[in-house]
Q: What sequence folds into this?
């Protein structure tokens, strides 16, 4: 076996690509038979396309994209759960296809949801089992497991069955399980998606600490707040391809974004939409009281607001509330992809 020299980047991908067979619609099951004929196969689903990532030790890298962008598929390929259709992924210098066992020994992976835990065992027994599977010694499991349970606020429930845990506790135990063998590379797929705000904050703090201790962390998220708060660098993934990459502030700066004005409008909303024209970044559906929310580009700050106010009044609409905000990562995302990441607002 040839060993590559110690890599500076703990995660590296080159042209990583994954195609899936098109799914057969439940309403047309006979296509399962037809699909065997290549000419009837239809277009493959391009889940991930030509992805080049380089994540050094000590970096928290966020793969940011909406549902279906290809985040989970990327994590599955880098963690050896899926074979790439094309391209390669290296973890600590090991190729995920040729040296899968070495890769698995170097990583801790956590997927969203509550899989990966044994509900009929206690929290401590879960860690014991995982540690044994990682060939850890009993004393190492007790020592490190105990510290993790303590750190994650699970110490006083460690000897109760996992089935009695709340979602947040299960998620924290899942994180403890992922960290038990002290891997240099962590891959966390939407680690805060199922958590309440307080638990999500605690998890984010822990993730920062973990990358601060010199691990490479690959995190996926569809929350731009999360990406802005904890990631050193962010890759924006859209329809399987990386469309931009950089520190959150850098991305906002490079997108050349102006401050924006967030408005609540009432009155003749159809006319208001026309009056806002292509200055609008997004607008919401009407609320119960008939008002809508919208965000517009405001290069001149409040001066833009005053000019808009006059224009809207002339169209029979009024501004009920206005806030001026600096551009965010989400604005950069909208500019780059033409879609919003999350939230109740329409596509512009
Ligand atoms: N096993 C599969 N078979 C067919 N298509 C799949 C499979 N897994 C994922 N996909 C498709 O690949 C795309 C990317 O999915 P995924 O990686 O789960 O996105 P994300 O995690 O960003 O929400 C989606 O269009 C999804 O429907
Ligand atoms: Mg996913």
A:
């Amino acid at each position: 076996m040839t060993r590559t020299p110690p890599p500076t980047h703990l995660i590296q991908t080159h042209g990583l690509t994954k195609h899936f067979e098109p799914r057969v619609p439940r309403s047309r099951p006979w296509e399962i038979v037809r699909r065997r004929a290549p000419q009837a196969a239809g277009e493959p689903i391009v889940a991930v396309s030509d992805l080049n990532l380089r994540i050094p030790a000590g970096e928290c890298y966020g793969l940011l994209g909406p549902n279906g962008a290809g985040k989970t598929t990327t994590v599955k390929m880098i963690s050896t759960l899926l074979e790439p259709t094309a391209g390669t992924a290296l973890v600590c210098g090991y190729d995920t296809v040729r040296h899968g066992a070495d890769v698995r020994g170097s990583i801790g992976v956590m997927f969203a949801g509550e899989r990966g835990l044994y509900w009929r065992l206690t929290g401590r027994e879960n860690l014991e089992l995982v540690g044994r599977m990682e060939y850890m010694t009993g004393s190492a499991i007790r020592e490190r497991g105990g510290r993790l349970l303590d750190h994650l606020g699970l110490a006083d429930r460690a000897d109760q069955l996992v089935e009695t845990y709340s979602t947040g506790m299960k998620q924290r135990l899942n994180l403890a399980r992922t960290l038990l063998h002290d891997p240099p590379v962590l891959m966390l797929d939407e680690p805060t998606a199922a958590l309440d705000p307080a638990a999500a904050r605690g998890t984010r703090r822990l993730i920062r600490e973990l990358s601060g201790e010199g691990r490479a962390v690959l995190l996926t998220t569809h929350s731009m707040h999360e990406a802005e708060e904890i990631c050193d660098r962010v890759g924006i993934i859209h329809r399987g391809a990386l469309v931009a990459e950089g520190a959150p502030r850098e991305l906002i700066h490079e997108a050349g974004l102006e401050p924006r004005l967030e408005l609540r409008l009432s009155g003749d909303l159809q006319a208001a939409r026309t009056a806002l024209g292509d200055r609008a970044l997004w607008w919401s559906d009407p609320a119960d009281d008939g008002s809508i929310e919208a965000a517009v580009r405001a290069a001149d700050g409040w001066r833009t607001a005053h000019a808009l106010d006059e224009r809207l009044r002339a169209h029979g609409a009024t501004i009920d509330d206005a806030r001026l905000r600096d551009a965010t990562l989400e604005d950069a995302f909208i500019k780059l992809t033409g879609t919003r990441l999350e939230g109740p607002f329409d596509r512009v």
